[in-house]
Amino acid sequence: MDFSKGPGAVAYSEKSELEVYNAFSAEMAKSKSRLRGFNNYSVPQLTREEKRENGLKSKSPAISLMGRNMEKMKEAQAWIRRILTLQDHHIIENYHILYLGKREHDILTQLQNNLRVSISEIISLEKVILEIKGAQASLVEVVMNIEHMLCEVQEEMARKKELALWSLSGQWTNWQPKNQDEMKRNTFLKCLKLSTEEIQNQKKQFESCGFQVIKVEEIDNVFLMAVFQRKKKMVEERTHRDPVSHRLFQQVPYQFCEAVCRVGFQRMYSMPCDPKYGVGIYFTKNLKNLAYQVKNTSATDELIYVFEAEVLTGSFCQGHHLNIFPPPLSPGDIDSHDSVVDNVSNPETFVIFSGTQAMPRYLWTCTQDHVQPQKDSAGPMMLSSQQPWERFSSGSSVD
């Protein structure tokens, strides 16, 4: 079921479609109780008239999405499309695969045996993936279970990093949350007006590089800021390079945006890239480089999430693919550089090896400039196996 192609491009029997839809629905029902974050997700029953209005035949399986958050609606749409268009082969790419323990590997073995699929783990410097092969209906259940498991691992890792951050920053901040749940409930994001002069100037930079800005949010996390300022003071005291920090950019998948706001930048949260300057956290100084990367890796209708950050670059040197931490200032020196770059004389790519060296300042939500998003409405978005995906409706006005 390839919705991106015109009618008649690929033919599937109604029985095949229904089997996949039923497998998806059954797995959603089993997962509903444990996927707490999906409590507001609903699939309302539509009348025959409503189905007809949306161009659906009454016998056609359909899913309705309702919501006012543009990002969540868009990501839900893309996720469901990936699930329902699975064939006999699927790739899950996620650095959190590295943190799967014995319990998780036992679950993978059980899924593999019970559903007669093949699950292979492939690890390289560039990416970490699970490759799954098997019957189409089985893949739906396997992929949903694995993605749920990875979400749990991601949250567990984020909470550990959050506790460490809390401990580090506790002595430098006046406010302390009563517990970690209270800290998590703080989204740390404040939506800004695009009409302000400062934001307008930055918005023009994005637009000149081929982005259409949908929304900009400011990150306000006192714990991250306290640790960052402490690190910045240390860098300023021992380096003679001015400035010690740069305004840099990083694209982050939507599923990790909240985590970055909570615990800062981590290699596992960034987009996969060729680690030719070292195994670290990559930032770019030039938005045009980011736009070129997006153009070659993202679908034209996808939302793009770009963090603008203050990054402590300090003393830097030429990067190398073997770097796992910054090289020493000189051979045998116990002090090391703060970062590595692509070109020492005119750097555009900076690589740091500690998340405490970067403070996320703004989160820019964009599209490629030729995509025009629509306004939000409270109505449902219909997903059908007999027609292309309908446009989703966005949230409240950003102006």
TrEMBL record:
Gene Ontology MF annotations: NAD+ poly-ADP-ribosyltransferase activity; NAD+-protein mono-ADP-ribosyltransferase activity; nucleotidyltransferase activity; transcription corepressor activity; ubiquitin-like protein ligase binding
Domain of life the protein comes from: Eukaryota
Compartments, as annotated in UniProt: Nucleus
Family membership: Belongs to the ARTD/PARP family.
One example of a Gene Ontology biological process annotation: positive regulation of type II interferon-mediated signaling pathway
Compositionally skewed regions (Polar residues) per UniProt: 383-399
Disordered: region residues: 375-399
PROSITE patterns, per database record: PARP_CATALYTIC
This protein's UniProt keywords: Glycosyltransferase, NAD, Nucleotidyltransferase, Nucleus, Transferase
PARP catalytic domain location: 174-394
Gene name linked to the record: PARP9
CC terms in the record's Gene Ontology section: cytoplasm; nucleus
CDD domains hit by this protein: TCCD_inducible_PARP_like
Name of the featured protein: Poly(ADP-ribose) polymerase family member 9
InterPro entries in UniProt: Mono-ARTD/PARP, Poly(ADP-ribose)pol_cat_dom
Lineage, opening ranks: Eukaryota, Metazoa, Chordata, Craniata, Vertebrata
